[in-house]
Amino acid sequence: MAGHLLIFGLGYTAGRLAAALRAQGWDVSATGSAGDIDFDDQEAVTKALYRATHVLSSVPPDRESGLDPVLNSYRQSFGDAWHGYLSSTGVYGDQQGAWVDESSPIGIGRRNARSQADADWMNLGARVFRLPGIYGPGRSALDRVQQGKARRIDMPGQVFSRVHVDDIVSAIVAALENTAPAGAYNVSDDLPASGNAVTEYACQLLGLEPPPMQTLEEAKLSEMARGFYSENRRVANGKAKRVLGWQPRYPTFREGLAALL
Q1: Cα(55)–Cα(41) distance, integer angstroms
Q2: Helix (H) or strand (E) holding 143
């Protein structure tokens, strides 16, 4: 089944999705610096929405207003098109290492605007893909180690989930091909792990010594990075496997990093 997909925000993940779908015969148009449509050109966007059989947004809420730019400007023009949204597992907030699934409450913690956008897209009947830490070509622990930017933070028990970008692509393709029901889908790998474990494995693959262990204060992280380390959770992916018929090609960071190497 091929159609016309309009992507709002042709970034890293959406760009790889666009390439995969075009290879399957899809017509794909997109906004964003790498896209072919100006987001602020309402006439061009409205025409694209009229043609689109499917709509996907990867645009986060505006940092200042907290509003979702796509919904704020174009929700009235979606019509009957299939629509999806790339959200974040950050909507679950800090769970002190506990598992979360799609039935877990959202709107907990620091990502209030993202949680509101997630809920708004859900209310529109979208397929909402909640994504953890994304890695892939050019954006992985291997790159951070080689660039001297890798850190090991002394925070025992702190874990998070992650996913290879191409596994996100395959999950969205499965949702498109199988006409997945509306709702939320956690798209993550099978092995939540500490950032230290990932860094250490990347160093092992590269034949390098891991960076020294540091406290959070010694690492002098950005405010955004410190916020990341303030949350601790494991993300379950059973619904995506069961409903979409999806299986991650890279079930853990080990397979993912080895393939990238």
Answers
A1: 17
A2: helix 141-146
Is the four-CA dihedral 120, 126, 127, 129 of positive or negative sign?
negative
Helix (H, G, I), strand (E, B) or coil at 184: strand
Q: Which residue has the tokens 């409903």?
A: 243
Quick one: pLDDT at residue 161?
Answer: 97
Spell out, as residue ranges, where the chain has pLDDT lower than 50: none
Q: What is d(CA 87, CA 89) in angstroms, rounded to the nearest whole number?
A: 7
Structure tokens at 245: 């018929």
DSSP element (H, E) containing 234: strand 234-235
- Which residues lie below 8 Å from residue 141, measured CB to CB, with a gap of 6+? 135, 150, 198, 199, 201, 202, 253, 257
What pLDDT digit, counting tens, does each position of 217-260 carry?
Answer: 888 878 777 777 889 999 999 999 999 999 999 999 999 999 99
For residue 111, give the 3-state DSSP assignment: coil
Residue pair 14/86 in contact (Cβ under 8 Å)? The answer is yes
Helix ranges, 154-215 (H): 165-177, 195-206
Record the pTM: 0.96
Residues 35 and 8 sit within 8 Å (Cβ to Cβ): no
Indicate the Cα dihedral angle 15, 79, 185, 246, nearest 10°.
-70
The CA-to-CA distance between both ends of the chain, in Å, stands at 34
pLDDT in tens, 86-107: 999 999 999 999 999 999 999 8
